[in-house]
């Protein structure tokens, strides 16, 4: 009898252990189970240029999409109507109040040692110069330390931070905080060398902040070509003089929207994966890479899952967030308005549309091991795709923190080329390859679908 009971207990515990074991714990079993579905996704996204054509229509028709602009709201209206035409489920617009910064007219002129136009872009959220403009000698520095060691050289001058691009994270500090540092040293305005490894005589804008600064001086970007020229002039002792004119200012906050739609989960409709990019852009170029591409690829990924009738276990929602560039109001509003829903993961694509190279994950180590097993299936999309740690994005950061859920993102191999175009007039459709875009759609669709299927 004892033997029978022992055998029964052993059999029961083994069958419980077996039932807890999932195909997501074994890369080969997962591959066998989902290979056909992954191939269906790839076939569907690569059958034509639907994703590229959608993005081209968006960029060509509505142009760039700064928060508070007509272009942004018209683009949002078109996405809303197009998601309905796509038969997406629960198509929705959420109201979001966004900052309304206007560039106005602007110019920068070299007055000495010769008269010449200097290409410029006021940095986002900077204040203008007033009607007289600001005219002063330029003091060029390459670091914050150099400025702080020589405040007497900066007093009454226009400080130029001529810092060569190392990485975006390292170099962007001059754009973000440069005005504050220059004002503390007594400067009347500040300029930066554009934050780009290769700017082709086209300046790059981006958000800046005055922090707690008591004096708010105008802060602008010029090209690397002009920044180097001003530096050479200073080194020769030529004391270059520049005049900056900028009408940059804020209007009262404007009404904007996040737009979203879903494929509703088959088994657990209340559990939500949210994926997307940001629909706002700067007021130059057409925001094709940053981040129209992120918006359209995630939308297409979710549409394909729906059209193929893959019936994901959980709800997959695509959201195009507003106002990532100069306020993050869209991501914050999303977290607040959807706080009662059960989110299980946030996914963002905001690094430019190139061939997909990494699916990234931030979260529990045990979950990462399962995600790592997606890799063999993802290699059907592109053999170079690797699953790695370090997922995230500005728009999803708010919901990820609030709901304490994993963050995922897609990285693209030529990420460094992204910063050639980022926040400049050169961020346009012609930089995007339709076949790279199809692969991004496939990689995202495969990732979202597999995630929704996990135990
Ligand atoms: Zn972006």
How is this fold's topology laid out?
Blueprint: H1 2-20, H2 27-46, H3 50-62, H4 70-85, E1 89-102, E2 106-112, E3 116-117, E4 120-122, E5 134-141, H5 144-149, H6 151-154, E6 158-161, H7 168-184, E7 189-193, E8 219-222, H8 224-235, E9 241-246, E10 249-263, E11 268-278, H9 288-307, E12 314-321, H10 329-337, E13 342-348, E14 356-362, H11 365-372, H12 375-378, E15 386-389, H13 397-403, E16 407-412, H14 415-421, H15 434-453
Parallel strand pairs: 5-6, 6-7, 7-8, 11-12, 11-13, 13-16, 14-15
Antiparallel strand pairs: 1-10, 2-3, 2-9, 4-8, 5-9, 10-12, 14-16
Helix pairs in contact: 2-15, 3-9, 9-15, 10-13
Protein model, in words:
The chain has 455 residues and is of the alpha/beta class. The protein has 2 domains: 24-99 and 252-453, 3-Layer(aba) Sandwich (Aminopeptidase), CATH 3.40.630.10; 104-247, Glucose Oxidase, domain 1. It has 15 helices and 16 strands. It binds zinc ion. Zinc ion (ZN) binds next to α9.
Q: How many helices in DSSP terms? A: 15
User: Strand share of the residues?
Assistant: 15-25%
Mean pLDDT: 95
Unreliably modeled segments: 12-19
User: Helicity, in percent?
Assistant: 40-55%
> Got a strand count?
16
Largest sheet: 8 strands, mixed
The separation of the N and C termini measures: 37 Å
What is the CATH superfamily label of the largest domain? Zn peptidases
CATH topology of the largest domain: Aminopeptidase
Give the name of the CATH architecture of the largest domain.
Answer: 3-Layer(aba) Sandwich
CATH classification class of the largest domain:
Alpha Beta
What Rg is obtained from the alpha carbons, in whole angstroms?
Answer: 25 Å
């Amino acid at each position: 009898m004892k033997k029978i009971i022992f055998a029964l207990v052993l059999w029961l515990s083994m069958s419980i252990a077996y039932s807890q074991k999932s195909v997501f714990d074994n890369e080969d079993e997962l591959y066998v189970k989902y290979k056909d579905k992954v191939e269906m996704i790839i076939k569907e996204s690569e059958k034509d240029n639907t994703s590229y054509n959608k993005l081209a229509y968006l960029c060509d028709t509505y142009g760039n999409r700064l928060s508070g602009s007509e272009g942004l709201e018209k683009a949002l209206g078109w996405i809303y109507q197009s998601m309905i035409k796509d038969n997406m489920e629960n198509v929705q617009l959420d109201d979001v109040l966004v900052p309304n910064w206007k560039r106005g007219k602007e110019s920068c002129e070299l007055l000495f040692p010769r008269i010449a136009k200097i290409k410029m872009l006021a940095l986002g959220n900077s204040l203008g110069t007033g009607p007289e403009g600001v005219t002063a000698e330029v003091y060029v520095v390459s670091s914050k330390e150099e400025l702080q060691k020589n405040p007497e050289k900066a007093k009454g001058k226009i400080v130029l931070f001529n810092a060569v691009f190392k990485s975006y994270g390292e170099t962007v500090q001059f754009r973000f905080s440069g005005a504050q540092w220059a004002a503390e040293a007594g400067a009347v305005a500040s300029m930066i060398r554009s934050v780009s490894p290769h700017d082709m005589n086209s300046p790059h804008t981006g958000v800046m902040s005055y922090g707690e600064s008591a004096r708010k001086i105008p802060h602008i970007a010029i090209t690397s070509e002009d920044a180097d020229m001003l530096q050479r002039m200073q080194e020769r002792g030529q004391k270059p003089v520049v005049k900056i004119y900028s009408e940059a200012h804020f209007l009262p906050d404007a009404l904007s929207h996040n737009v979203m739609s879903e494929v509703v989960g088959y088994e657990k409709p209340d559990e939500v994966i949210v994926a997307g990019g940001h629909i706002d852009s700067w007021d130059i170029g057409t925001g094709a890479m940053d981040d129209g591409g992120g918006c359209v690829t995630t939308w297409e990924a979710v549409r394909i899952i729906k059209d193929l009738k893959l019936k994901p276990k959980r709800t997959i929602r695509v959201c195009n967030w507003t106002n990532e560039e100069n306020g993050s109001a869209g991501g914050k509003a999303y977290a607040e308005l959807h706080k009662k829903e059960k989110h299980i993961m946030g996914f963002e694509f905001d690094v430019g549309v190139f061939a997909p190279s990494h699916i990234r994950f931030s979260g529990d180590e045990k979950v990462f091991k399962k995600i790592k097993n997606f890799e063999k299936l993802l290699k059907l999309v592109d053999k170079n795709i690797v699953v790695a740690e370090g997922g995230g994005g500005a728009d999803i950061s708010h919901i990820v923190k609030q709901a304490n859920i994993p963050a995922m993102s897609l990285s693209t191999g030529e990420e460094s080329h992204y910063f050639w175009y980022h926040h400049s007039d050169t961020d346009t459709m012609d930089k995007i390859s339709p076949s790279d875009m199809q692969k991004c759609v496939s990689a995202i669709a495969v990732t979202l679908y597999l995630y929704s299927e996990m135990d």
